[in-house]
């Protein structure tokens, strides 16, 4: 699954879009890493409940997969990818904001800043124009 599967020139993509999608790919990597950590903790005996660990892993891998598909769609200029990527950023903002004061600063402020960077990068007019796609309508289903 290559992100270069597109007919347009990567240089033609706005810098803000390229930065936003790079940050999203980093977030996907973190989601996968936390999912794998959950499995390792299950094997090492760090988690007492097998169901919780498996459910956490499945949910994290599912979110990572959907966001990765959205990122690939945006890179290819298809607008449907904005939905999953923006939704994940809003969820990330909400979860981080709800943990303010009760968690280390880097687990709250860093995700909030990254979400704002991605949202701004995706919603700038140049990025919206680059990902609006022309031709047949796209759909998730």
Q: Tell me the span between the first and last alpha carbons.
A: 19 Å
Q: Helicity, in percent?
A: 55-70%
Number of individual domains: 1
> Sheet with the most strands?
none
What's the tally of helices? Answer: 5
Percent range for β-strand residues: under 5%
Mean pLDDT: 87
What is the 3D shape? Answer: globular
Class from secondary-structure proportions: mainly alpha
Structure in words:
With 141 residues, this protein is mostly helical. The chain has one domain. Helices cover 70% and strands 0% of the residues. The protein contains 5 helices and no strands. The chain has helices spanning 15-44, 50-75, 82-98, 105-123, 125-130. Helix 1 (15-44) packs antiparallel against helix 4, helix 2 packs across helix 3 (82-98) and helix 3 packs antiparallel against helix 4 (105-123). The longest helix is centred in the N-terminal third of the chain and has 30 residues, at 15-44. The radius of gyration is 17 Å and the shape is globular. Residues 1-7 have low confidence and may be disordered.
């Amino acid at each position: 699954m290559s992100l270069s599967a597109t007919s347009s020139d990567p240089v033609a993509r706005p810098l803000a879009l390229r930065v936003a999608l790079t940050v999203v790919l980093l977030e996907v990597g973190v989601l996968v890493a936390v999912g794998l950590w959950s499995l390792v903790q299950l094997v090492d005996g760090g988690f007492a409940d097998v169901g919780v660990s498996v459910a956490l892993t499945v949910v994290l891998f599912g979110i990572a997969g959907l966001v990765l598909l959205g990122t690939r769609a945006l890179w290819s200029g298809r607008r449907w990818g904005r939905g999953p990527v923006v939704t994940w950023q809003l969820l990330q903002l909400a979860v981080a904001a709800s943990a303010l004061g009760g968690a280390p600063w880097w687990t709250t402020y860093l995700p909030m800043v990254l979400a704002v960077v991605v949202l701004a990068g995706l919603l700038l007019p140049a990025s919206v124009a680059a990902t609006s796609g022309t031709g047949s309508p796209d759909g998730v289903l």
